[in-house]
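pasting for ref. prot 1 ->
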Amino acid sequence: MREGNLEAPTRHPIDWKSPSFYDEGETFKELERVFDICHGCRRCVSLCHSFPTLFDLVDATDDGELHGVKKDDYWKVVDQCYLCDLCYMTKCPYVPPHEWNLDFPHLMLRAKAIKFKKGEVRASEKFLASTDVHGQFAGIPIVVQAVNAINKTKFARKQMDSMLGVHPDAWMPELGTKRFRWSAPKASATVVTNGERTPGKVAIFSTCYVNYNEPGIGFDLLKVLQHNEIPYVIVEKEKCCGMPKLELGDLDAVAAHKEVNMPVLAKYAREGYAILSAVPSCTLMFKQELPLMFPDCADTQAVKEAMWDPFEYLVARHKDGLLKTDFKTALGKVSYHIPCHGRVQNIGKKTEEMLKLIGTKVEVKLNTVERCSGHAGTYGVKTPYHKIAMKIGKPVFKAMARDEPDYIGSDCPMAGHHIDQGMREAGTPPKAVQHPLSLVRIAYGLS
């Protein structure tokens, strides 16, 4: 048996429809096998709180071995995993095709699915994962203004803490006064120019966050496409990608969301559109998780092939010689954070490449930070985990503050705001927080 693995990681389909997937006894055997390997390796100790939790449990036993850990305590490890996938993609030497076949995140997903089936997930957690429900008032100005104002009060935050398990100090997104999908302008460009690498027309999957909370990110993406004379359409119908439900282990809800989205998105894929999503977790859901859950679904596989990260598309467009580089406005000092769900897409540092491209025309002093911010979807706002999330993010907050940047930002807008909060608490508040797509719009000199 060889130590480690030098081959590229591969992933097996998720056999979530099989009754054995929910067999608690079999799952605990696999948890014991994997935890014992992790305990003997410990390379992932710095990634999240799952591994320190596991190793502390082991170290507290009489002989410092896993067999002394109570099986019920395994759930403490499971609860700390937010499915960032970094252990699988960047640290673990035993992932398939290694014969030990270790997939820690998908094992945690299996355990979470069992917990959900047993009815042990709180109603408050289910509500936090229901992003379409949160956003139902977005775009109604009077209601939005009232809701946003109330949510900032100490009384409301105390109620959120007691009823929803949202930490009073955690950053929470505001509702937008307009919805992206309702107010996105139609494309003026009509000529489709395909490149060697890129389709010449784009379909935008809005995402819940851009649609309900920060439509400006979506508008900036459209302005960049418009400037580059790329025809675009907004996907005619969409539901949440399902990532928040996946993180809970609610796989039936993930499947229900897929049944709404896939027929629509597959139509665009087969018509030759590049499908873009401005939130990395949503992009990853269509590129990886859903294809692994539905390996035999032709629609899902077609969408996987057509789905692009926006910067993956823009950089490929540049390599095709079809991206304008008439940047006019200097960005100055920029601290850019690469989020976990961007890193594990295996596309390289495309946002960094784009910012460096801008730097060949105007001044950009770039500081790239490649480490988990700790926000991790709903994890960072939950009362039991918020302080842990801030601790995980401390190295990022410090690194992002280097040289007093003019802008900070992350492809994950929620991580960007989490970092902003961490920097403020550390006494190094940023001058401005901007999504990288907004930085591209600014660099082009577009209003």
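and prot 2 ->
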Amino acid sequence: MKLRTAIFASLIATVALAGCQGSVFDGVGAKAERELPSKVLAKIKAKGMNKTSPVMARIFKEEGVLEVWKQKTNGRYDMVASYEICKWSGKLGPKYVEGDRQAPEGFYSVSAAQMNPNSQYYLSFNLGFPNAYDRANGRTGQHLMVHGACSSAGCYSMTDESMSEIYAFGRDAFKGGQRDFQVQAYPFRMTAANMARYKNDPNYQFWTMLKEGYDQFEITKVPPKVDVCGKRYVFNQNFPGQQGLSASAACPPMSQPDSIQSAYSSYQKTYDAAFSSALNKSSKKQPAPSIMGVQEAKLVSDWSARRARGEKVSRTPPSLSPASSETPGAPDTAAPTAIAQTPVTAPAATSVAANVPAAQPVLDQNATASVPVPNNNPAATAVVAPQVTPDMPAATAEKKSLWNRLTGQ
């Protein structure tokens, strides 16, 4: 009996350490080929899109939202769907090191090979962390996913219903010939008011870099061409005579199309005025907790490692920020729950057309990662009891069958 218990505990620990990886126990099912709902297909048609046209996604941590954008027949993108994120891991701010529990922020590229129809968490796709920027800055981690089940040891977790649609958008785009789709992961919507709110945050410089890509998409409504040089992201740049870029070396001479430069200059003037105005106003919304740089990341990583070894550690990870968005004593992972699908209204978009071809970035997808614990989505307000269906078994059923799965009994 003791031996059986020990083996079981060891296997459970192995599964937990796998983070958001897929599971060998779940077979590929019809869920990966499920069609988009008829109302979504009707919306696609009404917006002048094709079912298999290219897609991209934007993630906003603080708002707890994942948006899906799709290319119209005129080459521009329009938002076609928005989903509440059920859980995400860590705090605002980028991922630094293995085990720091941070969900990544930045620009990622997802190929068909990164789609996992055989995921332990219903369906999933790998974000491709670390990308060229992450590696150039010494950031480590692996298996950072967007997945279903609304329950995990990290990543961006969705309800199964939401993940089924998100997965279908990507699958259909690949069938239409898209090589990879871009995922832009942000701490919050990068408006003047929000940037002013976080002007004193230690991650502010990193966020202003991300904002360049955010702004270029807002201007053009085309996913920006993303490159990395000088250990930073650069967007929609041309490198005359350059055969290849080094993510760590200084950027070579580069240029940007005149149409984008002109549109960006106009956009920036409007933004600067709004930012100055926001600085002179007191925001009623307080900043959310954010990671205090690599020092806190290493503290949390060490806590994660000691915890994985079975050492007695605090229930919650160490924190250098004055407050935490985590609930003290909360369980490491939650049982699958269904979050009511409430419509998310997209903010008004700045419409300044620039003649730029729709180019998808090609970022290195070699992975290396972490085992974070999810935070509840602050935007999720309604939680209902999980529904047991053939495609989404109840948590209790999963627990009862796990030993049998592992042992063949």
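The chain is about 30% helix and 15% strand.
The longest helix spans residues 258-279.
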